[in-house]
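Dear U.,

Please find below the material for section 3 of the report. The protein was modelled together with pyridoxal-5'-phosphate; I have listed the sequence and SMILES used, followed by the predicted complex structure.
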Amino acid sequence: MNEQPNTFDPASLASDYLGEAATLLAHDDPFPGGAVVPPIYQTSLFTFANYADMADTFAGRRKQPIYSRGDNPTVMEFEARVAALEGAEAARGFSSGMAAISATVLAFVGAGERMVVVRNCYGDAYRLFERLFPRLHIKVDYVDGSDPDAVAAALPGAKLLYLESPTSMMFELQDIGHLARLAKEQGIVTTIDNSWASPVFQKPITHGVDLVLHSASKYLSGHSDTVAGVVAGSAAHIKHINEQTYSQLGGKLSPFEGWLLLRGLRTLPLRLPHHMKSGLILAERLKAYGKVERVNHPAYSNHPGKKTLAGYAGLFSFEVTEDVDIPAFVDALKFFRIGVSWGGHESLVVPAKASLEQTPGINSMARFGVSPRTIRFNVGLENVEDLWADIVQAFDKSKK
Ligand SMILES: *Cc1c(COP(=O)(O)O)cnc(C)c1O
């Protein structure tokens, strides 16, 4: 009589996406003094008790952080979490995604050497490759990463294969396991920018990719309050980056931002399924909406690259019909604020029409033919019905 009816099945609340990440990110071994959250080691250097400790540490016989441009315990905690999430042996934090990308690529490619990059890669990565690399005599070939034959044809003789699946703005997929295998056969290192999927939805190392890059400014942070980057891979590859570029180029992650990232990471497995669901709801409705010609969302792809995605992020683009006044549409949106970046709690809009005017001559979107009628949405954590109502009223105010 007193028994309460079962109003829900607890098992139905467990999401497949959470997996081991949920425990990994929620559980800490206690920190000094029993603290549940690690302290921010806001210190530039670490002193030694005596000569022998210093000498042993310098010689590698003893482990202790020496200087925060090399190692810092708060940052190391973040690095350990990302390595575990990605299934990697080690990871290295950086001051930005671009610091991680540049230090990683330059650790493996030098003067007179060549790398193969997927077209429609992140805009500033493209600008790095187009502006600085010619001066360093590094050759870059861009390929349609969705076409394995095109990648195979470009690989012989290259030092590095640079993937980003899905790509920025166009969200084209690559069969990352297949491409990493092709590269490995020729001793070519494969890297991937995995910022979009995050390790919750894609673990490239488990598919044979050597090094996984993130703009941690996006989903890993999740709160639009930090700029940071990270690379994860084998201990040997991370050691090579440490020796070749990390410490000397000096783009280290600050302890405070490392701490913010640890805080952001705790909710990563909860945030991603929400972004996915809201993103899919809006993508579906946009696809059926008269003013939208196509939706660039990996959910609508039948490319084999889809098989390594366990879910979809909340960032996608769509192309509107000729009769939509894009500036008026963007200005009419209330909940989608106008701005770059993505992966945070807040919804954002970027019209390709404006991005195409950035850095004329060195613009990957112009080079690879992104339509000026493309609009990118970052779908945040707001109520999805509020977002949809906002989109509809903005379309109503943007008739040409
Ligand atoms: C933002 C971004 C980057 C660059 O990261 P920063 O942290 O801004 O330096 C790299 N790749 C992708 C896909 C991005 O969206």
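For the text of the report, you could mention the following: The chain has two domains: 24-266, 268-396.

Regards,
Y.
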